[in-house]
């Protein structure tokens, strides 16, 4: 639930004069997204999303995020499109925060995605990877190996509060991943956070991808490993190989995986499970009791991590040769 | 910030088949209202508000609230209109909660209302009182004298935690109001919560009143006393008589006050200040530290109450004869 900064009408109207967006009719804070404040605007022209970027987002990264959305939309990917100001800038300022107006994408995220949706997500992820080619800006992945080590250094002394033995288990995992992380897979722009709440559907058709605020440059197949973690496990913790198969098939129907990518997939799945485990663990330990944030359980990702540790080859994810 | 109950697309679509509302295109939880869960829906026909009534709202009161909105809208008041189901019912059920679809009203609530807006609010309040005539259902005001006594009984032992001496001061105030509360003023349907966030404006024109979930039968001029408390004090706690004058003038331009109402106004202002003081005090004392609710400061209304205690006649609120 996210409205950290309230805005008043006068400031908003002044902000809107910098755009060709029509007359303001209404604005409502919306309870989605956890990093920024988001408002749904109705104007005489079209509905819009107004995003105010809060402190957790690095201001220097905003041109990458907004430019990427433009680049992807230009290449036919259905994603929110930042509305340029009359002076051409994609980024403005409102209520003391960097702010952008972004096209409103109709569609709904699925609370209970099914196999067919996983196939669509695989396809869309690959389409995004292809569309991202040629994007000029770069952003290193702040939540890759070095970032994990930093998070772990800040959490490990208290990790056993969450489950006894965690300090040793995660320390070993990090050492394994540091030693076995692949070095030479195909790279490009990845979404890095393509969870169900970031994919919209209209009926059973995928209508768009949103929330590019973790996007960065990394191994493309690492993005697929994030999606396998985010979409293909059931509530009881079991991996659903039918979903995994559909997602990988969907992905390969647009961008076939190389032999090296297929071999690396189990290690990358361990890495992405660890990545979400570590950010959740950190938030879990550091968020003051009763803050206005719903804490996500880090143990969900610990279970996934343990599953991946048992996986020998990508066939176990449903990859068919 | 209010989304207490999440809904999934399947349930929502099944719910919508009971209405003639077009195809669902999107729904977003909105961060407004504190009692219920609210979603903004886009359909192929029109935008709508979906409200899920949470436990704090008495289910037996819903026909009063929804029927009242219908009654007022039928008589030309600009307020949200419940969309009837195909079977004529105004109330349905979704995700285990009573639920209603309500027309979306364009407009914005003012973070910094000015004198001219207070005049419009006075006019609209009186227009609502007139439009409410003939509404068949009744709902006693649960937050009148007896309700205040009940709240006070649950809070008074801890009142001095908030400010020393409060237990005695508020005890005396309640005794005064019980002895001097008027008995024979004009009654009707009142809004009972017409704060700035419940009044929408488009430019400087009032575009509608919302949130009728405290509406009830009581003295009409008591509603005006609530609005004087809610709109006519500045952030520093000072009463702005220019705003009060405009609001009372606006009210009387539609429904002139009787001599008895004018005489009673200072006592009613004490009552309404006490009413909001008591609910805020109760929430302040009872809400667990760190719950997902922003606690409003009860002392704001203690200051207003003390101001009203010094008022001798309605002229001090800006009422001109």
Automatic annotation (TrEMBL), chains A, B:
Its EC number is 2.7.1.39. GO terms for biological process: threonine biosynthetic process. It holds the Pfam family APH. Residues 27-257 form the Aminoglycoside phosphotransferase domain. It catalyses: L-homoserine + ATP = O-phospho-L-homoserine + ADP + H(+). Gene3D superfamilies: 3.90.1200.10, Phosphorylase Kinase, domain 1 (3.30.200.20). This is Homoserine kinase.
């Amino acid at each position: 639930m996210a409205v950290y900064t309230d805005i008043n009408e006068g400031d908003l109207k002044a902000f809107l004069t910098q755009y060709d967006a029509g007359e303001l009719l209404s604005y409502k804070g919306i309870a989605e997204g956890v990093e920024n404040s988001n408002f749904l605007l109705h104007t005489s022209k079209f509905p819009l999303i107004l995003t105010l970027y809060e402190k957790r987002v690095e201001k220097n990264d905003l041109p990458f995020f907004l430019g990427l959305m433009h680049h992807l939309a230009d290449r036919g990917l259905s994603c929110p499109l930042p509305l340029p100001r009359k002076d051409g800038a994609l980024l403005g300022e409102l209520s003391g925060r960097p702010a952008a107006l972004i096209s409103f994408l109709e569609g709904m995220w699925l609370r209970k995605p099914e196999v067919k949706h996983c196939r669509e997500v695989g396809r869309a992820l690959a389409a995004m990877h292809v569309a991202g080619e040629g994007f000029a800006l770069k952003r290193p992945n702040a939540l890759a190996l070095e970032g994990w080590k930093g998070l772990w250094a800040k959490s490990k002394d208290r990790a056993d509060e969450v489950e006894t033995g965690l300090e040793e288990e995660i320390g070993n995992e990090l050492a394994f991943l540091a030693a076995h992380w692949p070095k030479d897979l195909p790279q490009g722009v990845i979404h890095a956070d393509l969870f169900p709440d970031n994919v919209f559907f209209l009926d059973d058709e995928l209508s768009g991808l949103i929330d590019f605020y973790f996007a960065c440059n990394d191994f493309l197949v690492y993005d697929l490993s994030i999606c396998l973690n985010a979409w293909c496990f059931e509530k009881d913790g079991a991996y659903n190989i039918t979903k995994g198969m559909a997602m990988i098939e969907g992905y390969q129907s647009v961008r076939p995986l190389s032999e090296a990518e297929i071999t690396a997939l189990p290690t990358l799945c361990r890495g992405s499970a660890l990545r979400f485990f570590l950010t959740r663990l950190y938030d879990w330990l550091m968020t003051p009791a009763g803050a206005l944030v719903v804490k996500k359980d880090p143990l969900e990702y610990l279970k996934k991590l343990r599953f991946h540790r048992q996986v020998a080859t990508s066939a176990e994810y449903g990859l068919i040769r």
